[in-house]
């Protein structure tokens, strides 16, 4: 099979960057699409913004050999009307395969990511849908301010257990879905190797950093405000809250117990040890 160029949308992000490294290491051609292409260095980047449709042509002008796309959604509650015009353009330019990053709480046909899943599955293209659980890397981003200022991890997840997954493990599945000769044409539930409550994760991090980190249990109202504090639109923040409620109800543990899943090999405690300085006040 001859593989053309892979377009990696969000190629400087959590999953896109490790995917770009895998493509480089395999000596396969790829192009990083990002709002700030200078940040793609040392990889080749091109300007792309979901909220500026005039940028949708840019990747195909930069490389007419693009035949597969790693697709991540914009941060919008109703993302399909934004994503669909780009996908249709890409198909018209010769793209045959799409690998889309969805999530465990958003099954096919559900609001937000599930609508894109449904559209790709029914469009008649080669596709794979990646449905990972909550990222290990959230501890090194979303939760950092609270850990540094107040020694807390704040969620509405209560005692829900999560098989936290590494973005590198997600990239491994994405790479195979993009490069395997036979298209997967299915969804992949992607989970980590162990289940943790946020209380347990906080205790694990406490041992690594040498001070007590606790899980602060937020009300639904507080949880929504937490997500809005990152600048997320109200509807999107409400969606994030709903996903945490599913955690509290055992939704992520159910995915871990499912017989059909991809299990990553990277462990939460190793991530904590490798990135310890993130949670040490300067």
Per CATH, the architecture of the domain at 5-134 and 165-190 is: 3-Layer(aba) Sandwich
Q: What is the first-to-last residue Cα distance?
A: 51 Å
Q: Under CATH, the topology of the domain at 5-134 and 165-190 is which?
A: Rossmann fold
Task: Report the mean per-residue pLDDT as an integer.
Answer: 96
In percent, how helical is the residue content? 25-40%
| Alpha carbon gyration radius | 19 Å
Give the structural class. alpha/beta
Biggest sheet architecture: 8 strands, parallel
CATH class of the domain at 5-134 and 165-190: Alpha Beta
Low-confidence runs of at least 5 consecutive residues:
none
Order of strands, widest sheet: 3-2-1-4-5-6-8-10
List the total number of helices.
Answer: 11
- Considering the protein shown, what is the CATH homologous superfamily of the domain at 5-134 and 165-190? NAD(P)-binding Rossmann-like Domain
Approximately how much beta-strand content do the residues carry?
Answer: 15-25%
Strand runs, count? 10
Shape: globular
Give, in order, the helices and strands.
EHEEHEHEHEHEHEHEHHHEH
Q: Can you give a write-up of this model?
A:
This is Agroclavine dehydrogenase. Pathway: Alkaloid biosynthesis; ergot alkaloid biosynthesis. It comes from Hypsizygus marmoreus. Keywords: Alkaloid metabolism, Oxidoreductase. The chain has 282 residues and is α/β, with parallel strands linked by helices. The chain has a domain at 5-134 and 165-190: NAD(P)-binding Rossmann-like Domain (Rossmann fold, 3-Layer(aba) Sandwich). 38% of the residues lie in helices and 16% in strands. The chain has eleven helices and ten strands. The strands form two sheets. Strands 3-2-1-4-5-6-8-10 form an eight-stranded parallel β-sheet, sandwiched between helices. The longest helix has 15 residues, at 234-248. 41% of the residues are buried. The model has no long low-confidence stretch (mean pLDDT 96).
